[in-house]
Amino acid sequence: MASKDSKSSRVKLTLSAAALTQLLSAMACFLGAFVLPNTFQEFRGISEYVLIGLGIIMLILGLTNLFFGSQISRLMQRIGRRSRVVVPREGVGYLAIMLVLAVGALLGHRNMPLLVFGMMAGPFVFNGWVVHAMLRGVQVKRIAPDRAIAGQFTTVQLEVTNTKRWLASQLIEVSDRIVPLNQKGFKTEQEVGVSFVRVPGQSVRTGRYRLQFPRRGKYRLGSIRLSSRFPMGIGERGQVLSDEVEIIVHPAIGRLLPEWARQQKEFAEANQRVKSGMGLFDDEFHRVREYRSDDNPRAIHWRSTAKQGQLMVREFHQTRQADSVVVLDLPDSKDWTQEDRELAISFAATVCLQQANSASGSTMLLGVSGKTNQWIASRNPAAFREEALDALALCGRSADPNLTGLFRQVIEEHPTQDDRLIIITPRPNDVIQTIADVTKQHDQEGMFAAKRMTVVEARKSRLDEVFRLDESSSVAASSSEGKRPALQQPDKSAAVVQNEVSV
Amino acid sequence: MNDQTKVQRAFLRSLSISISIASLILAAAEDSFLPAGLTPFIALAAHLLIDRHQVVHVSIAFANVLGSLAFIATAYEFVDSSVLGKLMAGSHLLIYISWVVLLLPKGIRQYWWILALSVLQVAVASVLTDDSSFGLSVFGLMFVLIWTLSLFTLFRTQLRFLKNSDSSDALATVQDSLNVSADPLAGQESELVKVENGMQIDADEQWVGWRFRTVVAIAYFASVLVAVITFLVFPRVWVPESPLAGLTNSVQAALSRTGFTENVSLGDIGEIMQSDARVLQFRIKSTANRRDVSPERFCLEMGMDELLFRGNVMGLYELGAWDSGRPGGRVMADVEGNASLLKDVATADYRLEVSQDPPEIGFAFVPAPLRNIIAKGSGVNVNKLRYSQSTRVKTTAAAGVKPLSFEGWYSKRPKEQKIHSPDLTVGGNDNSRVLSYFSDPQLTAKNRDYFANRWCVTPDLREALPDLTKLTEDLCSDDGELVSERECTNRIFRHLNTSGEYSYSLSPRVDDYSIDPVEDFLINRKTGHCEYFASACALMLQSVGVPARLVNGYKGYEENSVNGEFEVKQKHAHSWVEVWLDGHWETLDPTPAAARNAEVNEPGSFAWWADLKMVMNDGWLSMVQKMNPEQQKQMIQPLLDSVKKQWQAMKSQGLWATVKSFFVDFLFQPSKWFSFSTLLVTFVVLLIPALIFRRNPFRWIKAKLAWLTRWARGKDGSSVSVVRFYEMFQQVCRKHGLELSDQRTAVENAEEATQFFSSALGEEQDRGLPLRIAAAFNAVRFGDAKLPAGQLQELRNDVNRLNVVLKESAGKSLQSGASESTTASVVS
């Protein structure tokens, strides 16, 4: 759990009990200075001045607390004092009625309104004492995952420990703030929490709340705020713990439609290099078949030839899977909506996951060309999965993405010619041109031509043909648009743009 | 029914009860069932039909219309009404708004409104009443409100949890209006993180179980304690010259009814209610031995047949109304001079102590003849009037709402005073005869005659009341000649009282509205209450030229069965006649006494309850209503005196000697065991250990001892440090997402860490870190090896290095694009 500065820790902007107490004390001092000397001779002279001085100090403190309460609260939190008793809106109304009664009684020379005033003061004072006692000796621990997936529920556990000897803490509210970090146009803070009905003394109770993040990115949980209004709800004590933790929310994961699988298979078949080689490096025996022209004569299986009476050759298949490269292009284009972009990122994440699940021994690569270029490569599926999803969670668009640089990096660092290349971009033609330019510059002619390359146009209409988010995930992917995309059946007639690039 | 539904229903029930009780308190304070008395029925209907079964739905628009109507009705009531009327209009507005809110579909805001309106209704009631039943009711309501607020807190907790859940049908209708309206995130749902709040409750925990009830009970009693202390110590800094003070006094005066009316108006016939409300309580003491004297004994000694507490005296009659004949009933010249009054109570034979309940209505009710009257307390002035012999009261505004205390001085029957001639006695009933007479020695006969004829003979009666005059003349004439004044008196008295022609009734009806009500009584109806008998008698006497006047006040008394005090109640209100005969006033009571006594002395259904209530009211009055700076001073002064005394003692004797002296006194003087100073010292003595205990010094001592132990052990070995570096290794792994199991060996854990962090531990030397740490741990832990300080430092460095590498790796993978140039982080 990374602990951040508590500058942003929020305390509710309500009349604090400290301000209230100070103002009431000031009033009591002034009243005392006015009344006591007339009634008791003992209070004449120096006591009168002491009371007035005390009243002025209390008044200054009370007014300072009233007007600069939140700033003082932040300051106190920084130096370690994070507890604050506040009077909620309902309590302020309650106090207003009490004040009217007191003033009315003094103006009307009546004891009955003062009796009602006392009747109201009793519960108020008692409630203040109880809420203070409820949170004393209470500790909270948060157990939260550091990764989550957009559109899927994540559970966070809160552990409340009551260290008091015998007094149970009742109706404890533990609230967590959820703050989106580094997300343009999405800065709304929210609160979520768990109510603990009763935590007996010397006991621990565990509660949970659930979150469903609307979109990928980084979020901060915290500060934790403990509060209690028990029993009457007219006073509240709050305690802020600057226990903060960051959660990286991965893009929503969908599922690849059969159409995608079919096309990929067809594409793979079309490019399958069935070699009748000797299997010296990367091949292994597949079958014995009749001789075809251009077959290597050294592959002739003479024993079978003798048996069959015709030339038979041994066929070797390439068993080592080709490395797969996923390239995501994130230009800042006006005609590319955020919904399309998020869908494209989800699609990239889903493809990466699928590759990580199905790969065995091959290297998986992800390149993201956005605000910054990111290049992730791994043979370890678990590591690749985590790093790729993290990168996709945090990637951002750019007005001028360095796509050329990314392709150059692909060529320089991963010059294998058998890679499967999947490019997800809203501007397929530009990308193809860029590839052509890069290959020319690097004198690597034929390299990309040899690769099996799929260019997926990152538009919703296109992506819907091969990829689908389930309902909750689709909400996540389209959240920035404020509408839920209707699930559409893919148009079978449409096809993913598949380009076998020839340069 | 699940727990959520139970809490919701209990809360809604309690809420309805709260507003109902508050409204009933207001209705009692207003002394009128309508409109506040209807609230319980509306609350019940709203609870059943709207909140619970949802049969009726009142739209906001309709509620707005109802609210507007309420405002219009209240405005109509408010305009052109008295101060009391305006206050009533305000309270009625509160009631109408309560009804509208009750009829609305409710959310959190509406619930708070209902609670606030309940409190406001009680606040208004507190201005309207001083009754002890109000105090008791408020204590009761306080419990209900604490219970309701506590349930509300539970309910809101449940609501918070269920807000994101669709599982609760019971709560589906509850709109959390407070949150909805204040939600700044409304309309951004798709942008928001969907949250599901959690709730933790033990399986065996009940929402409204015995624990909850106990907490509420404790809250109530603690709140009552705080409330009483707050009430007692709140400084009574009454704002002088406040217009509100006059307002509340006038409200009090208007609301307090005594059954006594200063002026008598006849003709408004209706049923006279016999009220048991107390008017005054009195006690008679002998000045000789200061002992209590019974009223019967006092009457006997004074030559009275019964105690008549005189109020106003009226001699002029016009159009059905009696008037005393002077503006305001008195002029300065009326006030009896000091010379005619006794100056020393010791010279009197009896002292009548009276406490007359508020409001002040201008008269101090005392029997005559009176030798002097003395007011008690500040702000009260009582005067005895010379001509009417009535006793007038004038008080300040502040004193007017308090009981009026005064005492009358009496001398035994003067020698010249005699019981009236017994020939007026009828049927053996002493109460029906002329009661007494008294002389007025300070007035000359001329003045007396002038006064009697000027103010006690209504002019032109023959024209105004021809039938009455004719009847009287027929009655008082023998052969066309009027008989003597005394004979006239006797004949008129007998005609009204003993002829059997007239009967006593508390609910008479007017037969003929076209004639004077007294003539209607005499000629047509022949039934009426004391005012008709007295009026007829006085007017008949005046019609034949005999000065006579009507006196109203109270006749009779009762003894309180609870505290033994003698009390005069509203039902004792009475009117009688004083007639000027032979140069002095004689008292006549023409009302048939037997019938009146039967009505007045009829025991109430709950006489004991009335007596008890009266006693409670007195206690309430002394403890609550009369609380003022003087009483507060009396409460606090002992504390101040005690502190001062102890302080002086300490200054003169020193601390130790004072403490010693205090405890010696305490031990050997049982009277001090329950003194205020003992209470104070006990409080301080208990407070100090309580504060010490609260700081929990044992925990502090324990922590310090543990620190000392660690420090002592850390001096001679490295065992702690050895374990520490492995613990640090475990912490680093945990921090980066790998929880090492205690069930495996250190080497196994190290291998797992190497594999888990393989992507981060790229360099060969880094890959060996976990195993190196594990090996060192095993060597020390199981091989009993002693590591030199240098090696320990190396191990610590290894752990730090591991931490740095893992942190860098994490940073690289997540934020690899910090610069424009492409970076590669190859993890294999």
Describe this structure as you would to a colleague:
The complex is a heterodimer of chains A (503) and B (828). Chain A is α+β, with helices and mostly antiparallel strands and 503 residues long. Chain A is 39% helix and 26% strand. Chain A contains 13 helices and 20 strands. Chain A has helices at residues 17-39, 46-78, 89-108, 112-135, 258-270, 302-308, 338-358, 381-394, 403-413, 428-441, 447-450, 460-463, 471-478; strands at 15-16, 83-87, 138-143, 147-149, 153-162, 169-181, 190-199, 203-212, 217-228, 236-241, 245-250, 255-256, 283-290, 312-318, 324-329, 364-369, 373-378, 420-425, 452-457, 467-468. In chain A, the strands form 5 sheets. In chain A, strands 1, 2, 4, 6, 7, 9, 10 and 11 form an 8-stranded mixed β-sheet that branches. Chain A has a 5-stranded mixed β-sheet with strand order 17-16-15-18-19, sandwiched between helices. A 3-stranded antiparallel β-sheet of chain A has the order 3-5-8, with no helix packed on it. In chain A, strand 15 (324-329), helix 7 and strand 16 form a beta-alpha-beta unit. In chain A, helix 3 (89-108) packs antiparallel against helix 4 (112-135) and helix 7 (338-358) runs antiparallel to helix 8 (381-394). Residues 1-13, 272-277 and 478-503 of chain A have low confidence and may be disordered. In chain B, strands 3, 4, 8, 9, 12, 19 and 20 form a 7-stranded antiparallel β-sheet that branches. In chain B, strands 5-18-21-22-13 form a 5-stranded antiparallel β-sheet, with helices on both faces. In chain B, strands 6-7 form a two-stranded antiparallel sheet. Chain B is 51% helix and 12% strand. The two termini of chain B are 60 Å apart. Chain B is elongated, with a radius of gyration of 44 Å. By secondary structure, chain B is an alpha+beta fold. The interface between A and B is large, with 106 and 99 residues.
